[in-house]
Structure formats: C-alpha cells, structure tokens
C-alpha cells in the first residue's frame, strides 16, 4: 500500500467509489446518475429524482405512483414523537430539533434488517415521508400551535409548504419549491454525506445514519450559508452600499456569503437555475429590495472576484427564494436537509452494497513512552 500525504479535510483524497452523482467544477456540470441537473429540474419532480438517486434508475409511471402513494401513507408522525417534540425548547434551533426527532424514529422502527430489501424500502419511504412533517411540526409547535396534519391531496413540496403555513400554496410557489428540493438532493461526497457513509458503514440503523448527517449539515461551514446571505443583504440595506460593502469585505479578507465553492470554479449550475426561478417568483409576487440588492451584489462580486473563479453558489439565490415563499430563515438549513435526505439515503444504500467499515489512519504527533505521574506529584 502506498502511504499517502496527509491532507487536512481529506481535500482531494478519494474516500469512496460512487455512481450516484457527478460534478465537473471547471465546466459547471452536475449530474444525478448521469442525468444533467438542468434536465431533472426542468422536466422532473423531487420524488422522481429521489427515486433515481436511491434506486439507480428513473421510475416507470407505475413505480413513481406507488412511491408517491407510499410516501403519502407514511407522512404522519406518531403522537409520541409529536409529544416528545412539544417538550423541545421553542428557542432551540430547528436543526437540533430535526436531528433529535430523526434519531427518535429509530426507537420506533428499530428492526435492523439491513439484508432485507423490504426493510430498506420501508426505511427510505419513512424517512422521506416523515422528515418534512417533523420540520413543519417543530415550526408550528414552537409558536404554541398544534402541528398541521399532512394533506393527502397535495404533492411532496406543496404539502410541506401547507404544513408550514396552513395555506395551500400557489402552484408556481409549490413547483419552484419542488425544484429547489431537486437541486439540493445530492452533491457527491460532502461533509454530511461522508458522515452518513461513515455511520452507515458500522451497519447501524438508517435513522442513526440520517441523524448523524443532519448534525453534520447543521454547521455554519456546510448548510448554513443561505441563512447568512439574508442577514448580509439586510446589513447592506441599500443599492448604494453594495460596492462599499464588497470592497470592505475584500480589504478585510472577509468572505462574501453565497459566493465561491470548493469544487465549482465557474457559476454553480444550481445557482443559475435558482436565479431563473427567483426571477419567475418575484415577477409574479412582486420584486423586493432583497432581490434588487442580490442582483447588484452578484454583478459587483463577479466584477471583483470573477477572475479568481468565484461566482454565486447554490446558497446565494436559495435564501431569496425561501424567504419569498414564506419560509422562516432558521428553517433554510432544515429545508436543505429535507432535500438531502434523498442523497444521504442513496449513499447509505450504496455503502451497504460494498460495505467495509471506515477506519482511516492518522499521523500521530504526541509524545511516546511518557511516564505516569502520580496525582500528588502533578
Ligand atoms: N468572498 C470573498 N473571497 C472569497 C470567497 C468569498 N465568498 N470565497 C473564496 N474567496 C477567496 C479567498 O479569500 C481566497 O483568496 P486568496 O487566494 O486571495 O487568499 C480564494 O478565494 C480561495 O478561497 P478558499 O477559502 O481557499 O476557497 P475554498 O475552496 O476553501 O472555500 C468556500 C470554498 C465555499 C468555503 C468559500 O468560497 C466560502 O467560504 N464562501 C462563502 C460561504 C458560502 O457561500 N458557502 C456555501 C458553499 S456552497 C454550498 C455547498 O455546496 O455545500
């Protein structure tokens, strides 16, 4: 075995072989199972992409109907889980609430039959079905409301917005939200996916796999940038402040939120799709200050940083869209999690098929053969 050089953050080190998604950062290409994200976003639905990611092929009409029906059937969450969630502090972060609730599912569906295809299918359906219900339930309960029951007549995206707002969403809003979910469903081996894979490799249950991935996504270096885009736009405040804000950040070597990507050195293809969606949404519901600031900010950042390969990433426009859809800012990362469950489950399944427990090595830097000093002499 060749001994590899240590790379902090495992940057550039292949940690798995996968056929789930592909990214070409120089050309701005993202594919799920070989299909371009632009096509999936334009022609498909989130559940269709989820099926594709998890089961490796696009579903037939019958398969998709059965999958959607199963998910509708499993959307409700046991009253004991709802009761448990009622005890969560209303000031707690929704990602912590989600991680706890996802882990709690393991208490109720604990059979760990990983070699049984029916168990795998049920776990996939349960997690895709119940995670949005739990996110919306916490959002209602922290305001002192009862959770809104899932509406069986609404599809996946529309039902989530309904549970959140108690109003049936406008079809354009529901469609745009569905596309946002498709765009966030999978993105190769990032931190939360790697976390899911490491947990999966111990052959624990899928609820623990998803709970650990949610915990990893919660960190500000991973899932939280779209929240920060909104606070940054609020801080900028006016169009005239955009250029001085950017110049000040560059002078002080501060990152401008929603720009740059470890992999993409051109504009993130998801940002381009989201920008078009944002335009459609704002055209229908009215342009606001945030949108105008965002367009100006993107123009100035491209002018100043385009030569370094720094362009808008997926988080730049997603925050604007979510805000316009009436989603509270601290639910942006849980919404990311709702979508990414599809990718995590795909990697869980792939990991089970080729499993070897993750056990990397380390470069030890500490002392050796150190003496034990009795406590009274320390
Ligand atoms: N604003 C200003 N300068 C930037 C930015 C930015 N957003 N991103 C990178 N740079 C500069 C950075 O200062 C450095 O300049 P120099 O070479 O002169 O020192 C150069 O570009 C390389 O930056 P880096 O931090 O080494 O690049 P990275 O690949 O490690 O970081 C990143 C990628 C996404 C962490 C970073 O671009 C960043 O912090 N962006 C803002 C936060 C953000 O929007 N995060 C969401 C990422 S997309 C979601 C996902 O797919 O998971």
Report on this structure:
- By secondary structure, this protein is mostly helical.
- The chain folds into two domains: 18-219 and 332-353, Citrate Synthase, domain 1; 225-324, Orthogonal Bundle (Cytochrome p450-Terp, domain 2), CATH 1.10.230.
- The protein contains 16 helices and three strands.
- It has a three-stranded antiparallel sheet with strand order 1-2-3.
- The longest helix is centred in the middle third of the chain and has 25 residues, at 117-141.
- Bound molecules: carboxymethyl coenzyme *A.
- Carboxymethyl coenzyme *A (CMC) binds at residues 187, 190, 222, 225, 255-262, 305, 308, 310, 313-315.
Question: Which small-molecule ligands are present, each listed once?
Answer: carboxymethyl coenzyme *A
| Integer tally of domains | 2
CATH class of the largest domain: Mainly Alpha
Which residues sit in consecutive blocks of at least 5 with pLDDT less than 50?
none
Fold topology:
Blueprint lengths: L20 E4 L4 E4 L2 E2 H7 L2 H10 L5 H13 L5 H8 L7 H15 L8 H25 L14 H10 L5 H14 L6 H10 L5 H12 L7 H12 L5 H10 L17 H17 L3 H17 L8 H11 L7 H22 L25
Antiparallel strand pairs: 1-2, 2-3
Carboxymethyl coenzyme *A binds next to helix 15.
């Amino acid at each position: 075995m060749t001994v590899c050089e240590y790379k902090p953050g495992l940057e550039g080190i292949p940690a798995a072989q996968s056929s789930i998604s592909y990214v070409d950062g120089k050309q701005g290409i993202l594919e799920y199972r070989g299909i371009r994200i632009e096509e999936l976003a334009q022609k498909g639905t989130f559940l269709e992409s989820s099926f594709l990611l998890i089961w490796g092929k696009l579903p037939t009409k019958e398969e998709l109907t059965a999958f959607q029906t199963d998910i509708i059937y499993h959307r409700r969450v046991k009253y004991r889980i709802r009761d448990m969630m009622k005890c969560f502090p209303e000031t707690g972060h929704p990602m912590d609430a989600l991680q706890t609730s996802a882990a709690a599912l393991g208490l109720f569906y604990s059979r760990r039959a990983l070699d049984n295809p029916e168990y795998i299918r049920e776990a996939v359906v349960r997690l895709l079905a119940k995670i949005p219900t739990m996110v919306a339930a916490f959002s209602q309960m922290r305001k002192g409301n009862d959770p809104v029951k899932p509406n069986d007549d609404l599809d996946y995206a529309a039902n989530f917005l309904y549970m959140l707002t108690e109003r049936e969403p406008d079809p354009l809003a529901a469609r745009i939200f569905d596309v946002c979910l498709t765009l966030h469903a999978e993105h190769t081996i990032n931190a939360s996916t790697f976390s899911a894979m490491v947990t999966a490799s111990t052959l624990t249950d899928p609820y623990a796999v998803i709970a650990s991935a949610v915990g990893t996504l919660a960190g500000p270096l991973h899932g939280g940038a779209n929240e920060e885009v909104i606070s940054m736009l609020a801080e900028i405040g006016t169009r005239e402040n955009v250029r001085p804000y950017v110049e000040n950040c560059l002078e002080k070597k501060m990152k401008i939120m929603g720009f740059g990507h470890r992999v993409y050195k051109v504009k993130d293809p998801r940002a381009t799709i989201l920008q078009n969606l944002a335009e459609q949404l704002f055209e229908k519901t009215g342009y606001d200050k945030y949108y105008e600031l965002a367009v100006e900010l993107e123009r100035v950042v491209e002018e100043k940083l385009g030569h370094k390969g720094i362009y808008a990433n997926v988080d730049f426009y997603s925050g604007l869209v979510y805000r316009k859809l009436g989603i509270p800012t601290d639910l942006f990362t849980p919404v990311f999690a709702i979508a990414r469950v599809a990718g995590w489950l795909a990697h869980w399944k792939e990991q089970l098929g080729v499993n070897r427990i993750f056990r990397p090595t380390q470069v030890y830097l500490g002392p050796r053969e150190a003496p034990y000093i009795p406590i009274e002499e320390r």
